[in-house]
Design a protein that fits this description.
The structure holds 2 protein chains of 2 kinds. Chain A is an alpha/beta fold. Chain A is globular, with a radius of gyration of 17 Å. Chain B is flat and about 105 Å long. Chain B is of the alpha+beta class. Classes of the chains: A alpha/beta, B alpha+beta. The interface between A and B is medium-sized, with 36 and 33 residues.
């Protein structure tokens, strides 16, 4: 079952001579429960792709369907509501709200949606993330790894259709990196959560079901991960 | 140019909006301080010119100086100018014996005296030698004589030892040629019995022992005292007069310094402006330094000393000051120029100062220019000092780690569940953001606070100083009031003049009164006794009530009696009977001071030169209805009596002191009547007619009120603008700093509506806080003003509701508009761009 469908997606910056194609006619699809890694060198357009998938940036042309919805046909408010219900975003620099504590940060998408947070869901997530004793802490009282776990919690709390992670371990040491990836993979397995991760880390890419490699805004490779091909 | 200055300039350019707003803040502060100084100087200038107009341009005057001795005054090193004058004496004019002015007084002036003493020509020329004379414009209309320019005037000039004397001594005959007619405004006193006339003083025609009066202006007023002593000793001149009005306004009064009040007000106002300015300018630099923290750290890591970094901040302030201060001086000057032009258009100050040409001139002196500059430069330096010190302290490590400038704690950020319920997550985030950095928000709230307090207290000044007194005048039940003054005028003469006045064209109903003061010690009510005891300041324990026995003319009395419901026949029985107006003001309410009913006797004491008379006044009626022009008093009650009763009263003791006649009139056509009564006043030869035009008074009050309102509200508007620049800078920067957070919120699904909601709540919380402090203080100050203006007891304290409502609306409007402006830029921004941007 396709949860994500990308059709002829292009994104350009500037005009004329200075025109840069960040994405050039990209098409692919992702099935529900799949774990996809997007790799590529700096400036290849992989972050742009992820942000367009997440509904926080706009394509120049082409369409993105999530769970059958053409997300760029939605107006700004509807897109925002769609985001908080269907998309979970994880960033390299966590991007937590500094004035909200751990539990408030995690439940933010639910609160914005005006929903009551189901206690069991929150407990389950914080237990999985190992944050049970940190619920009342402010972000500046947490380590980098802990902060990233909060942002994962925030991405997962709503049980979104798709979780997008932009170099989630880029700012962490190897132990923390490993932990974070385990968590993401676990949720992928446990909740059959679709997961798309941008990474530089080969080891992470290799854990994925599929690897999409982007170069100069074009898909160079879109295959099931295997050691030989990467090497 | 050094790389650090380049950086500073680039930083200012990069943050163009904030730089411009800060420069506007500096410019407005400069403009206000400058404008206040200009106002003080210009007001002083006007007052000085008024003083010169009315009393002359001299500082001290020595009378009875022998001509030989005048050199001690003239040659003093501190003497700027001297003017000579000599009173030659008075001469009887050939006029009716009843005329209020019977004499002409001739004074000789030299050229300087004509220049400097009040002596304005209506027509003709000033005398050039001792055979020429100028005479007062009042002579012809008041005496019926007909002197023209070019006529010969023969006078028998002599002196009288006493103003009451009718014979003159040392009479000499002089024949003058009239060369001009004088405006009599300042040279003639309406109550004196002389007209004025001036001839030329030819010193060469005097003996060295003849005495003259010498007026002096000084080069250095501060040394005036010493110089006057030297002169007085040298010239043996003991009779010294000072031009106190002029000296007072010059700031060198011989006794009390009335300028102090003006300067004190200016000082308070300037202090307020400085507080406001420091808040804005400090805030601007604090924000700028905070933003560049990382830059400072990097500079430090490559070897910039803390001194160099401090210099960068001061340089920034110097650049802003160099643009803002001159701009402000220009704005301030132009502002006052426009204001004064507007005010001069109303020319009502001419009336209050009794000046021909009472225009405000924009006065600038090097001193106020220097003061303004010093105040502003010091303000800017103080404002830049603390942020500069903070900037210099930034270590490379701190900057690179970029630890949050804001120390947050969970406790500080705690919000209640109720907030969550009421405002939702948007409200929670808004409130937490407010709590997150109290220091930064404090300046914003402080700016709003100052504006609120000023607005409410100034509105109160206007309310109590004008609106309420306006109301009192507005309720006046007559349009004109008059009386007649003059020496030895008989009652019949007075009544004659008033009777003429009340029958002029445009006159309507009128009332003529005169009164005798008496005292009652019996028949007083308990209410009055209580009031008396409460207010009695002396040790006098005998309770007494002032009673004014007021005589009313027949027709008016009959009407009044009818209104009260008494038959006028009740008064024809002889004896002394009248109608008691038994109502008196006590604090905020009224009391009945007398405990007597109709047909009982009020026992009164009337003290005359001869004896204390005990009078029984029969009360034909007791009413609470006051006759026209007799409002209720807090000092006394009135008994209204007919002419017959007053006659009987005066028959008891012919030494009883009775007031002059007073007339009150309702006009059917005020404008016509005003012109007619002025004509009558000029033409009147029996005594002097004084009148008050109530409508004109109200009009001039309203003009002054308008002027004060323009001035005060203009001031508030500018102070508020300074505050707004501050609010704008803080909120705008704050929102810019949080753009990454906003982007984050949007990426997790905050809708544009939710975003607006958040800003909306944040502005509400801001506004509430500013109002929470501002309103009570403003209202408190209002009460203080109410107290100072003596409103207590006269008016009850009214909360300035209009101002409060305007304040509340304006505060929310200003904050929300700023938020919306700052937010709109963020809303348009691409979420991704904000997220990947390097904040700070």
């Amino acid at each position: 079952m396709k949860i994500l469908q990308v059709d002829h997606l292009s994104k350009s910056y500037g005009t004329g001579e200075a025109k840069v194609m960040a994405l050039d006619d990209v098409s692919f699809s992702v099935d529900k429960g799949e774990f996809v890694a997007i790799i590529g060198p700096s400036g290849s357009g992989k972050s742009t792709l992820l942000h367009i998938l997440g509904g926080v940036d706009k394509p120049t042309s082409g369409n993105v369907y999530i769970d059958g919805v053409d997300i760029y046909s939605l107006n700004e408010s509807k897109l925002a509501i769609f985001r908080r219900r269907q998309i979970g975003l994880i960033y390299q620099f966590y991007n937590l709200i500094p004035v909200l504590n751990v539990s408030e940060n995690i439940t933010l998408p639910l609160e914005l949606d005006g929903q009551m947070t189901p206690k069991t869901r929150l407990n389950e997530i914080v237990k999985t993330l190992g944050l049970s004793d940190r619920l009342k802490h402010l972000p500046n009282e947490l380590s980098g790894g802990q902060q990233q776990r909060v942002s994962i919690g925030r991405a997962l709390i709503n049980n979104p259709a798709i979780v997008l992670a932009d170099e989630p371990t880029g700012n962490l040491d190897s132990t923390n990196s490993k932990e974070i990836m385990e968590l993401l993979k676990a949720s992928n397995k446990k909740y059959n959560q679709t997961l798309i991760v941008i990474t530089h880390d080969e080891n992470i890419a290799l854990q994925a079901d599929r690897i999409i490699s982007i170069h100069d805004g074009k898909i160079q490779m879109n295959e099931v991960a295997s050691c030989e091909r990467l090497i | 140019m050094n790389v650090l200055s380049k950086l500073t300039k680039r930083h200012l350019k990069l943050n163009k909006k904030r730089t411009i707003v800060s420069i506007i803040g500096i410019a407005l502060s400069t403009a206000l301080i400058f404008a206040v100084s200009i106002s003080v100087l210009s007001f002083r200038d006007l007052a000085m010119r008024a003083a010169i107009d009315s009393s002359g341009n001299f500082e001290a005057k020595f009378a009875d100086v022998q001509l030989a001795n005048t050199k001690y005054i003239e040659d003093n090193s501190n003497t700027k100018e001297v003017m000579y004058s000599k009173t030659l004496g008075i001469s009887k004019l050939n006029v009716d014996a009843k005329a209020s002015k019977q004499y002409i007084e001739v004074t000789a002036y030299d050229g300087k005296a004509f220049e400097n003493y009040p002596c304005a020509l209506k027509e003709g020329t000033l005398p050039k030698d001792s055979s020429e004379i100028v005479i007062s414009e009042n002579i012809n209309p008041k005496t019926g004589l007909n002197y023209k320019v070019g006529d010969k005037l023969t006078l028998n000039i002599g002196t009288r030892d006493n103003a009451q004397d009718t014979t003159l001594s040392n009479v000499t005959k002089k024949i003058y040629t009239i060369t001009g007619i004088l405006k009599a405004d300042y040279t003639e006193r309406s109550y004196s019995d002389t007209f004025s006339a001036f001839t030329y003083l030819d010193k060469s025609g005097l003996n060295t022992t003849d005495t003259v009066t010498v007026g002096v202006t000084f080069k250095n007023l501060a040394a005036m005292k010493t110089s006057v002593n030297e002169m007085s000793t040298g010239a043996n001149a003991k009779n010294i007069a000072y031009n106190n009005t002029l000296l007072t306004w010059s700031g060198y009064s011989s006794h009390d310094n009335a300028n102090t009040f003006l300067y004190a007000i200016a000082a308070v106002v300037i202090a307020l402006i400085i507080i406001g300015s420091v808040a804005v300018i400090y805030n601007a630099f604090a924000i700028s330094v905070n933003e560049r923290k990382k830059q400072f750290g990097i500079l430090a890591s490559v070897g910039a000393t803390s001194k160099q970094i401090k210099k960068m901040v001061f340089q920034e302030s110097a650049i802003m000051g160099a643009i803002g201060i001159p701009l402000g001086l220009v704005i301030g000057y132009l502002g006052m120029f426009v204001t004064f032009s507007l005010i001069n258009g109303f020319y009502f100050f001419g009336e209050s100062f009794n000046m021909q040409n009472a225009n405000f001139n924009v006065i600038i002196s090097p001193i106020i220019l220097t003061i303004t500059l010093v105040i502003l430069i010091v303000t800017i330096l103080i404002s830049a000092y603390i942020p500069a010190k903070r900037a210099a302290k930034v270590t490379p490590l701190e900057a690179i780690r970029l630890t949050n400038d804001i120390k947050m704690s969970r406790k500080k950020l705690r919000t209640s569940r109720l907030t969550q319920k009421l405002f939702g997550i948007e409200g929670i985030i808004a409130l937490k953001n407010l709590k997150r950095n109290r220091k930064r928000y404090r300046t914003t709230i402080f700016s709003l606070f100052i504006s609120i307090v000023l607005f409410i207290s100034f509105s109160t000044i206007i309310l109590y100083a004008f609106d309420l007194s306006d109301q009192q005048l507005g309720t006046s039940d007559y349009d004109f009031a008059f009386s007649v003054g003059g020496n030895g005028l008989s009652e019949a003469d007075q009544l004659d003049v008033i009777n003429k006045a009340v029958k002029l064209e445009g006159a309507g109903e009128y009332w003529i009164y005169r009164s005798v003061d008496a005292e009652a010690t019996t028949g007083l009510s308990n209410d009055y006794k209580a009031k008396f005891k409460k207010s009695a300041s002396s040790t006098n324990t005998d309770i007494s009530l002032n009673v004014s026995i007021v005589e009313m003319q027949d027709e008016a009395f009959a009407n009044y009696a009818k209104e009260v419901g008494v038959d006028t026949n009740a008064f024809s029985k002889g004896g002394i009977s009248g109608i008691l107006v038994n109502k008196m003001i006590n604090g905020n309410s009224f009391i009945k001071p007398v405990d007597l009913t109709a047909n009982s006797d009020l026992n009164l004491e009337i003290i005359s030169d001869k004896q204390t008379n005990n009078i029984k006044l029969q009360l034909a009626a007791v009413t609470d209805k006051a006759p026209v022009a007799y409002g209720y008093s807090r000092e006394q009650v009135y008994v209204i009596v007919p002419k017959s009763s007053m006659k009987n009263l005066l028959a008891v003791d012919n030494k009883i002191d009775i007031s002059g006649y007073m007339g009150y009139l309702k006009a059917t056509d005020s404008a016509t009547y005003a012109a007619k009564i002025e004509d009558l006043k000029k033409a009147n030869t029996v005594g002097t007619l004084y009148y008050t035009d109530v409508k004109a008074m109200i009009k001039s009050m309203q003009a002054i009120k308008l002027f004060m309102s323009i001035f005060l509200y203009g001031f508030i508007v500018i102070i508020t603008l300074i505050g707004v620049t501050n609010v704008f800078n803080t909120i705008n920067t704050n929102i810019q700093l949080r753009r990454k957070e906003f982007a984050m919120l949007k990426s997790v699904g905050l809708t544009p509506k939710g975003f607006n909601k958040m800003l909306y709540y944040e502005s509400i919380f801001y506004g509430l806080k500013a109002l929470l402090y501002g309103l009570p203080v403003g209202i408190g100050l209002s009460y203080l003003m109410y107290y100072i203006f003596g409103g207590v007891g006269v008016f009850s304290f009214v909360l300035p509701w209009n101002s409060i409502i305007i304040c509340i609306v304006a505060v929310f409007f200003i904050v929300y508009m700023t938020m919306l402006y700052a937010g709109s830029k963020i809303k348009k921004e691409n979420i991704m761009d904000a997220l990947v941007s390097d904040i700070i």
